[in-house]
């Protein structure tokens, strides 16, 4: 119960918001974007925060899902549901193929390789106009519907994406607190020690990379059906950086932190709309300032403060009680 | 048959031979120490034994099976675990989780069943928890179980590394300088811990600079110098071996404890 | 066909010279502080944009004065970056420093956007726009400026690091900070100098190439990435490798654009980079390293 306490709290909040603020633009429109961003941030956080493998190209997998759905529905008239599965399969295969060679790299090299991957995918999307619509993108993507229930209002999309987000958070929380999750964190802590404990680090990295890519692809497909329009701009290098910022802002290696980062970064431009010209600068300043002054991120930074406080008390107690033992 | 049988082991880096033609056998259930001056190639030897480096020549047989050519995680699977000279702690995790990672090979559940939290997971988690606790208690660390690893002093972390290695239930434990950086009290605790370890039937291969500790816990000792075998035998034989005394700085064997 | 190839080669060397300078700047900072500076491209942009701004209008400065002033401005920005963003985070992880410099680059771009807007600006050519005929290929006089300038700067940097006390001191810092400190080198000042120098190189690259490519607040992004690619191709931490990597990348892109498709030229550059990373992560001219445990 304690393990999932935060999860239930968040679930209740997500469910209650549209009732507390009915027909509110910030809930059902910005909220939906925030939800999608949160899904992406949670997936990237598995890779970056927990497994310690930086990726500056996560938007590529988001784009693959989105474009698979967009192309199959608009150009070939498919039903939306199977396109999501095809998107997952396609993204999964690509991610699996590139994962091994890419994740052999570390630090700067890994950053550059993932960045390069993201840029290549973006260029391909722009250039393959006959299929992707090129820079103009693809429009009139049909929405999702299930047994006659068509997702055609902002509120319904809020429900779908809210549910999906909670599902992804639940999966991530379960995963982290398990054998596989510990393997991920261990390889972040010390790759050589992880290997010596019997963890196949190369396979584990590949696994988490593919998993993160799959979640991103799913988010991409949903995004395409929700927006009814996709264009290359949504999947460029800057969006990858934005996702990294979300993870970093909330706090690496914290699922709730990633969600918090995504929410803040989605709402910030809405609130800064008055200072539109300053948006880029403020965005850069936040990214830089956070990393310099609070590298653990908002969520963890706050938690750390709490922990330091409670921990100090615990240690003094322990010292008192352990005097007799030694 | 010896537990570990090393033959003709040679490795060089960029033309410099670090280990040359080394051979030795580690018997079952013993504490076997490898000593030698700094730079003699002890850690390099450990890195080959655990599959991190691949030797240029020679063989390393563990229970009759070849280690050379296997990845470290495959070597771990054979029943070899190790600790490190410079701590390789998972500082991003709690002490308990660190040691639970040690149970990785004793648990099997795949990633998807963990993500869906199937009932089998709960059972396995409880089991891992129990094993980790057991290892921590064995190493005298019950007081630190729920603490984050990055908040603990060096001496404690050294023991957490041992607990983590123990949680894997190894047949052979490679310990790379377990007493380095410890104060006198901690060194005595470490000595007792190594003794208790070998009493449980685990074989220990020990690299250590503290001669007092080595002489007190080891059943046999191998001395290497410039990557070659200098001497091998019982502690008393080693202590009185003129070649060994020579290698150690004009004949002064240091006793630290 | 041959003439065409010659044309591609000339273009490639011009573009490659710019990449080489940015890559060289990358390598200098990486050598001095182990930081991969993702805002290297912004130095190029700030150099070019400042020069444009200083020459503009009725009260505009002569081109050469503006160029010198622009280089100085960029040097200040580079030093400020080191002092206020990199230095406070000393000892941070690789991921952290990467994100700091990415943040810095976005920040600088944001300021440029505020000051100069989104327009594309030209800088006057140094010596006219009359193309020069070489066989059946042509080359702009400005391209010669770019090539010559780059060559001069590269050799200058080479001389600086190998034959001057200051240059050697910076190299000493990169080898061993504590030792450098012990022999009386002021490490923090050396780091400032390294960033200043790297920024100056970027600014000069920007000013040299701006008459051909024009400049806007976001020209630094791609150039920075190309410079990073050049540095990786050549082997990180090897300044002359970065120069060679830059020229090579410029040539590859130019040939790819001419022979395959101009839309895919950047993609081809990055694919080659990925292949090098996969099969020879130490770069084409770098030495392999052994992990220590």
From TrEMBL, chain A:
Q: List cellular component terms (GO).
A: plasma membrane
Q: What's in the keyword line of the UniProt record?
A: Cell membrane, Membrane, Transmembrane, Transmembrane helix
Coarse class of the primary localization is membrane
Do you know which Pfam families this protein is assigned to?
Answer: BPD_transp_2
Instruction: Tell whether Transmembrane is among the UniProt keywords.
Output: yes
Q: Does the keyword Transmembrane apply?
A: yes
Q: Which terms does the record give in the GO molecular function aspect?
A: branched-chain amino acid transmembrane transporter activity
**Membrane-spanning segments:** 26-47, 59-78, 84-103, 110-130, 155-176, 206-223, 281-302
Cellular localization per UniProt: Cell inner membrane
The UniProt entry lists membrane topology as: Multi-pass membrane protein
The domain of life is Bacteria
Q: Which InterPro entries match?
A: ABC_transp_permease, LivM-like
Q: What is this protein called?
A: Branched-chain amino acid ABC transporter permease
UniProtKB/TrEMBL annotation, chain B:
Q: Which Pfam families match?
A: ABC_tran, BCA_ABC_TP_C
Which positions fall inside the ABC transporter domain? 4-251
CDD domains given in the database record: ABC_Mj1267_LivG_branched
Q: Name one GO molecular function term.
A: ATP hydrolysis activity
Swiss-Prot/TrEMBL keywords:
ATP-binding, Nucleotide-binding, Transport
- Its domain of life reads Bacteria
Biological process (GO) annotations held by this record are: D-alanine transmembrane transport; L-alanine transport; L-isoleucine import across plasma membrane; L-valine import across plasma membrane
Q: Name one GO cellular component term.
A: plasma membrane
Annotated protein name in UniProt? ABC transporter ATP-binding protein
From TrEMBL, chain C:
Q: What is its main location?
A: membrane
Q: Which UniProt keywords apply?
A: Amino-acid transport, Cell membrane, Membrane, Transmembrane, Transmembrane helix, Transport
Membrane-related topology note: Multi-pass membrane protein
**Stretch forming the signal peptide:** none
**A Pfam family matched in the record:** BPD_transp_2
Give a yes or no for keyword Ribonucleoprotein in this entry.
no
* Record-level GO BP terms: amino acid transport
UniProt-listed InterPro entries: ABC_transp_permease, BCAA_transport_permease
A GO cellular component annotation here is:
plasma membrane
What's this protein's family per the entry?
A: Belongs to the binding-protein-dependent transport system permease family. LivHM subfamily.
Q: Kindly provide the name given to this protein in its UniProt entry.
A: Branched-chain amino acid ABC transporter permease
Source organism per entry reads Sedimenticola thiotaurini
């Amino acid at each position: 119960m304690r393990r999932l306490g935060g999860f239930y709290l968040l679930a209740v909040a997500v469910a209650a918001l549209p009732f507390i603020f009915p027909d509110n633009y910030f809930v059902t429109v910005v909220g939906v974007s925030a939800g999608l961003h949160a899904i992406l941030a949670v997936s990237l956080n598995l890779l970056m925060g927990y497994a310690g493998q930086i990726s500056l190209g996560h938007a590529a997998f988001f784009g693959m899902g989105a474009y698979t759905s967009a192309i199959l529905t608009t150009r070939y008239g498919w039903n939306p549901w199977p396109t999501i599965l095809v998107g997952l399969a396609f993204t999964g295969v690509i991610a699996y193929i590139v994962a091994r060679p890419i994740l052999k790299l570390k630090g700067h090299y890994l950053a550059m390789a993932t960045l390069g991957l993201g840029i290549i995918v973006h260029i391909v999307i722009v250039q393959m106009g006959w299929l992707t619509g090129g820079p103009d993108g693809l429009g009139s993507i049909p929405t999702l519907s299930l047994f006659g229930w068509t997702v055609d209002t902002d509120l319904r999309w809020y429900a779908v994406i809210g549910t999906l987000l909670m599902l992804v958070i639940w999966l991530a929380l379960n995963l982290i607190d398990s054998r596989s999750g510990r393997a991920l964190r261990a390889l972040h802590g010390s790759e050589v020690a992880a290997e010596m404990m019997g963890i196949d680090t190369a396979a584990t990295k590949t696994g988490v990379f593919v998993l993160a890519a799959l979640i991103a692809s799913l988010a991409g497909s949903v995004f395409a059906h929700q927006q009814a329009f996709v264009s290359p701009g949504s999947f460029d290098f800057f969006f990858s950086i934005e996702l990294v910022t979300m993870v970093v802002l909330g706090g690496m290696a914290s699922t709730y932190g990633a969600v918090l980062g995504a929410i803040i970064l989605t709402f910030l431009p809405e609130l800064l709309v008055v200072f539109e010209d300053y948006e880029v600068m403020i965005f850069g300043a936040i990214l830089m300032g956070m990393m310099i002054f609070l590298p653990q991120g908002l969520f963890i930074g706050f938690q750390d403060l709490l922990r330091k406080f409670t921990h100090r008390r615990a240690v003094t107690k322990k010292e008192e009680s352990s005097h007799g033992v030694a | 048959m010896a537990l570990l049988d090393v033959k003709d082991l040679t490795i060089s880096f960029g033309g410099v031979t670090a280990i040359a033609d080394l051979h030795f056998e580690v018997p079952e259930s013993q504490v076997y120490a490898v000593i030698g001056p700094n730079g003699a190639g002890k850690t390099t030897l450990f890195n080959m034994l655990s599959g991190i480096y691949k030797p240029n020549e020679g063989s390393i047989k563990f229970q009759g099976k070849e280690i050379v050519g296997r990845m470290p995680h495959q070597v771990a699977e054979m029943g070899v675990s190790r600790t490190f000279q410079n701590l390789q702690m998972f500082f991003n995790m709690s002490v308990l989780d660190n040691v639970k990672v040690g149970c990785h090979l004793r648990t099997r559940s795949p990633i998807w069943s963990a993500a869906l939290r199937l009932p089998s997971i709960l059972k396995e988690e409880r089991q891992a928890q129990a094993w980790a606790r057991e290892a921590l208690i064995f190493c005298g660390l019950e007081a630190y179980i729920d603490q984050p690893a990055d908040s603990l002093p060096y001496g404690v972390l050294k023991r957490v590394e041992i607990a983590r290695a123990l949680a894997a239930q190894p047949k052979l434990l490679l310990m790379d300088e377990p007493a380095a950086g410890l104060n006198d009290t901690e060194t005595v605790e470490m000595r007792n811990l190594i003794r208790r370890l070998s009493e449980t039937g685990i074989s220990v291969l020990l690299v250590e600079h503290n001669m007092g500790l080595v002489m007190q816990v080891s059943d046999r000792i191998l001395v290497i110098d410039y990557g070659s075998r200098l001497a091998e035998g019982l502690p008393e034989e080693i202590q009185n071996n003129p070649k060994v005394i020579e290698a150690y700085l004009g004949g002064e064997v240091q006793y630290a404890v | 066909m041959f003439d065409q190839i010659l044309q591609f080669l000339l273009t490639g060397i011009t573009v490659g010279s710019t990449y080489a300078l940015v890559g060289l700047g990358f390598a200098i900072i990486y050598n001095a502080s182990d930081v991969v500076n993702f805002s290297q491209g912004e130095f190029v942009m700030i150099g070019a944009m400042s020069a444009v701004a200083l020459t503009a209008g009725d009260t505009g400065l002569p081109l050469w004065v503006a160029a010198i002033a622009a280089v100085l401005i960029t040097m200040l920005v580079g030093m400020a970056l080191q002092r206020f963003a990199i230095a406070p985070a000393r000892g941070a992880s690789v991921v952290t420093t990467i994100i700091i410099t990415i943040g810095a680059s976005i920040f600088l771009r944001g300021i440029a956007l505020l000051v100069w807007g989104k327009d594309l600006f030209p800088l006057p050519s140094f010596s006219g726009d009359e193309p020069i005929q070489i066989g059946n290929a042509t080359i702009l006089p400005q391209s010669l400026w770019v090539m010559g300038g780059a060559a001069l700067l590269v050799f200058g940097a080479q001389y600086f690091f190998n034959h001057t006390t200051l240059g050697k001191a910076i190299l000493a810092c990169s080898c061993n900070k504590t030792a450098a400190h012990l022999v009386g080198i002021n490490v923090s000042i050396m780091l400032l100098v390294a960033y200043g120098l790297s920024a100056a190189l970027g600014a000069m690259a920007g000013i040299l190439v701006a008459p051909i490519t024009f400049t806007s607040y976001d020209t630094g992004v791609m150039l920075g990435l190309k410079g990073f690619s050049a540095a990786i191709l050549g082997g990180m931490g090897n300044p002359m490798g970065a120069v060679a990597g830059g020229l090579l990348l410029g040539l590859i892109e130019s040939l790819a654009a001419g022979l395959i498709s101009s839309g895919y030229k950047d993609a081809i550059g990055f694919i080659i980079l990925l292949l090098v990373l996969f099969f020879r992560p130490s770069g084409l001219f770098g030495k392999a390293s052994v992990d220590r445990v």
